[in-house]
Amino acid sequence: MEPNELDSALYALLSKPMQIEDIRRALPNAEKQALRDSLDRLIAAGRVMKNKKNRFAQVGHYGCVAGTFLATERGFAFVRPDAEGDAPERADDLFIPPNAGGGAWHGDHVLVKVYERGGSRGRTEAAVLRVLQRAGGELTGALIRRGKDYFVQPSSKKFPEIAIGRQNLGEASVGDRVAVEVSYYGSDTVMPQGKIRADLGEDGTMEASIAGILRENGVQDVFPADASAAAERVPQSVDPAEAAQRLDLRDKLIFTIDGDDAKDFDDAVSLETLENGHLLLGVHIADVSHYVTPDSPLDAEAFRRGTSVYYPGHVVPMLPFALSHGICSLNPDEDRLAFSAMMEFDKDGRRHKASFAKSVIRSGARMTYRNVNKILAGDEDLRGKYAFLTEAIEGMNALAQTLNRRRIERGALELDIPETEIVVDSEGKPVDLQYRERGQSERLIEEFMLQANEAVAEYMVRRERPTVYRVHENPDPEKLRVFATFARPFGYRVDPSKPQDTAQLQAVLNGAKGDPKQRILPMLLLRSLARARYSEECIGHYGLKAKYYLHFTSPIRRYPDLIAHRMLQKSLLGEEITPADETMCEDAAQQSTAREFAADTCERDIDKLYTAAYMKQFIGETFEGEVSGVAPFGLFIALENGCEGLVRVELLEGDYYEYDEQHMSMQGRHTGKRFTIGTPLTVTLLAASEVTGQIDFGPAEGVLPASDKARQPAERPPYRTGPTGKGAGKGSSGAHHRKRRPAKRGRR
Questions:
Q1: Which helix (H) or strand (E) holds 610?
Q2: For the CA atoms of the chain, what is the radius of gyration?
Q3: Which of 256, 288, 669, 712 has the greatest CB tally within 10 Å of its CB?
Q4: Are the C-beta atoms of residues 27 and 5 closer than 8 Å to each other?
């Protein structure tokens, strides 16, 4: 019996307590040592435990649960229970009171004892029995000295202070921000111990904070020597012998469409009319897999990084610039190797055929979204300059609109939440905030990339070939119920028991367009949806209403796309699939999901710093905003241009305000005044820190003096609001968060 099979059989058997002798009799075909190993694995994973009478059983039989320990900055914590089996939903978080953490740190995998009685505010309480696995990794914080001893005060108050021996200081100086590796997690009598691994610069500076965020999330700017050397050895021109073996498309009208500031171009498009009247859409993707081969130093580093990371004025690339900005970039008027998806559509946007081939192309132009939008709007100068492209662009736009209409008709959601970008000067300082316009050209590229992704996914599924898919589960009905509650006052009727009926959700999105009073609804809906992820199994994409979906179109900056290219080529060549291929896909899916989450965290947290730096010039000014989130400690306020800050509950005058978790509101005990998501509020900017990213507001009327407590960083909810309204200029605040990745790249 294989280990996984034995684990499953043993776990199912232990639905009731059993001694080891009873287990052996029930599983006579299991070897003694294999059985012991299986028990050890289940115990280590927090799925099985042994009581004082030496009886083994599922942890639930003893009133216990395994999960992730989530510390707060106020002494208490929560544990998010593990999902059971194939269950798409987890149980509610468990409240861990102060002094019940059992030595667990934020992010640790723990086993807790659950108390049946309701805890504070009706929450179910639990206590940590033991730490199953440490989250590990490094922490960042300020190096301080007290007397002769050195300590690191972590940047987040979720973690305790760490003692540093003199021999473990490295080159760091007191007052620096450092990265520390924890060597001992402490006890009731001994402090945690650690060793400094990197000096990140002077603490209290924005630069050190950025370095700390990147370091904490495992993002390194410098490539290992072997990967850099391998990149430098890659020729910067196409090998004629290789080109001769490929589908030659250099005589076709192919071109790229990207943002004005794009430096790498990993996709190009073409469109032809066939003799039968159908349209042949070509999506040509940089053939990164030709240069980044399995088990090479470049591949190992790309796997580790998983994705490129973008923040204002910077990119930490997945691949060295010699590839991403060089031979893999589909630069105009240069031969490049590509992987082409050729798709045939009729006039109604139905796809009749799809074929795929390694190709050699030569982009005829480097077009920008801005110029294509102007051409489509009738700009005579640009239409003259790019006369050789105008007909193709207009045909592409018509096809994209048809494809979009079909996608919406099948039930795909069009969230279309505005994005802002932080503009920086030549020195990297934030100087402005601008809304990124999403015009016809952006939608055109998005539709074409979606079509290529779906076509490749369908090809792989129908041939039962392994690869990495992009999946998106159905939303949690409870979260949809909360959304339905907020949508109801606006006249919408959302049935949370019918998540597959996306038409009811799209009706809300359509109704909210152009209505300032409803601008919070699209983001509330986004919060209620599951997070898309990567998987070796194709289970469909809820938001796109796509049965087949993966990422194929950005191998320069996403590792799953690189795997999709490799596995598609193996399928086209009819090569045998090995167990190693399947394992590779599983590992890549798991790693890529984790690295995408880390990249998102970096981008979000660094954007906060830039926004706060921009906001500092407006301290004392007043803005119109609305409540975007409610927490026990205060109200999160979003301004018209998307900036989000906190009004602490102690600054709300005139009543004692109580937090209502069920309705996500704050209500005055005596006056009945109620703040909930969408409630308008005029606020004054009190403080903005480019070191912490914290932005503090106060009610414009009757603002209490800002205490030291009011200026401390607050714990953020696990979501944020997106930008609303029109652009930002002088006298307005900055956008608090935007997805810094190229717009067409998306998260779908």
A1: helix 579-615
A2: 28
A3: 288
A4: no
CATH class in words for 138-216: mainly beta
Of the given ranges (68-82, 167-181, 592-606, 700-714), which has the lowest mean pLDDT? 700-714
Class of residue 344 by CB neighbours under 10 A (exposed 0-12, middle 13-18, buried 19+): middle
Output the pTM of the full model.
0.86
Q: Is residue 613 helix, strand or coil?
A: helix
Q: d(Cα 289, Cα 558) in Å, to the nearest integer?
A: 12
In sequence order, the β-bridge partners of residue 646 are 636, 696
Helix (H, G, I), strand (E, B) or coil at 517: helix
For residue 459, CA distances in Å to 23, 271, 410, 435, 452 come to 46, 21, 20, 38, 11
CA distance 263 to 200: 28
Distance CA 38, CA 3 (A): 7
Topology adopted by domain 63-133: OB fold (Dihydrolipoamide Acetyltransferase, E2P) (2.40.50)
User: Phi and psi dihedrals of 501, rounded to 5?
Assistant: -80, 80
Closest CA to 639 of 629, 653, 625: 625
Query: What single DSSP character describes residue 642?
Result: S
- Binned at pLDDT 50, 70 and 90, residue 722 comes out as very low
Q: How confident is the model at residue 84 (pLDDT cuts 50, 70, 90)?
A: low
Residue 245 amino acid letter: Q
Q: Where are the domains of the chain?
A: 3-60, 63-133, 138-216, 234-471+536-603, 477-529, 622-730
pLDDT (tens digit, 9 = 90+) per residue, 597-653? 999 999 999 999 999 999 999 999 999 999 988 998 999 998 877 789 999 999 998
Where residue 243 falls (left for φ over 0; alpha for ψ -120 to 50; beta otherwise) is alpha
Fold match flag (3-60 vs 63-133): no
Residue 214 main-chain phi, psi, to 5 deg? -60, -45
Helix/strand/coil for 145:
strand
CA distances from 278 to 346, 374, 392, 463 (A): 5, 27, 14, 26
Q: Give CATH for domain 622-730.
A: 2.40.50.140
CA distance 646 to 557: 34
Torsion of CA 102, 107, 110, 116, to 10 degrees: 80
Pick from 607, 610, 620: which is nearest to 720 by CA? Answer: 607
Architecture (CATH level 2) of domain 3-60:
Orthogonal Bundle (1.10)
